[in-house]
Specification:
By secondary structure, the protein is mostly helical. The protein has one domain: c-terminal domain of poly(a) binding protein, CATH 1.10.1900. The chain is 72% helix and 0% strand. The chain contains five helices and no strands. The N and C termini lie far apart (88 Å).
């Protein structure tokens, strides 16, 4: 009985990896085994960094809010505490955007909280 080989699926599998490795340097984009390792590593870092991106943006928003409330004589921690006690529900992303692009609106929120 002749040997049965599913070359169609095997070729598609290799093609998928090599397509994902396009743009990589040297053998990483041409040699299947090297490309496979490079793509697996890239996927692992992409997974990790999708989660780290969320943390990085939260840190950025907090820094922006803190910088924006300092001129009003209050720090970030006290501002968020007073915001929660005033039952004003605005997330940090929106607060940071208001502080950066709409200072008048942000000042109104600070005045509402900081009485």
């Amino acid at each position: 009985m002749p040997r049965s080989v599913n070359s169609v699926a095997a070729k598609a599998r290799r093609k998928k990896i090599l397509k994902a490795a396009r743009g990589y340097f040297s053998g990483r984009s041409k040699v299947y085994t090297v490309a496979k390792n490079a793509v697996e590593r890239a996927m692992k870092y992409a997974f990790i960094h999708r989660r780290q991106k969320k943390r990085a943006f939260r840190r950025l928003w907090i820094a922006r809010i803190n910088a924006a409330v300092r001129p009003f004589g209050i720090n970030y921690s006290r501002f968020i505490d007073k915001l929660n006690k005033s039952n004003i529900i605005i997330n940090r992303k929106v607060l940071a955007d208001l502080a950066l692009h709409h200072p008048a609106s942000f000042k109104a929120i600070v005045d509402q909280v900081h009485q």
